[in-house]
What we know:
Layout: H1 8-17, H2 25-28, H3 45-50, H4 61-67, H5 71-76, H6 80-92, H7 94-117, E1 119-121, E2 128-130, H8 154-190, H9 209-229
Amino acid sequence: MEVTADTNLCLGSGNQRNNTRRTNRQRWTDDQAPQAPNGFSLSSLEKLIQTKSTASPKHNMLHFVLAMMTPSVAATLFTDTDIKLLAKAKAMKSFTVYQDCTELTQGFQAIRQICQTGRYQNTTTGEKVKMERRRMTKASRDEAEEMIDDNDTFHNAMQAFVDKYERQVAAVEQGCYCSFIMYKEQALFLGDLSVYPPPKEDQDGKADLVVIMHRLAVQVRRHAEEVEQGPDHH
Length: 234
């Protein structure tokens, strides 16, 4: 998905249409991420569609932006696969994915902590509970300590669970980290404070970057097809 290449035309148009300046941009800037010059509010992408030509009202600014590209370039901005993946990601919601991955990995870490230390820490209250192995009946006075009950398989079962799923959980954790680093880098490149961190629900001033990109992808494909068909077909 060519998000950064050949979209300077859109960036320029967005800058022209965007009347709000983000005073907190420097505080949010990550020096490791490339920046679009000045950036622009992603909400201004809607202006590309809303702004009609005075000479031909059925055409909007997005038609003209795409018409300035070669057909081969316009066709590769968003492929069928890109749109399907964006639609799937949109349905899942970025915040929900992050929350689910975090809960999964934190819960797994708590189980691993039981295996390693014999203690469980409640992630909500911070309370620590010692998870002792069950003992046999009270030891006699001659025995130094009580014998462990071999029928208590709790700790063994927990260790087997950790051993079985540790690699899969690590893959989920790594995938989540990489995905949201990429999400943040795209938001930083565009310079829009409204999409990071991804909101729990769409609200005034906040939006999921994936939702915006899916909407843009659908509009770009539709408008590119209309440009290819010529002015008499739309």
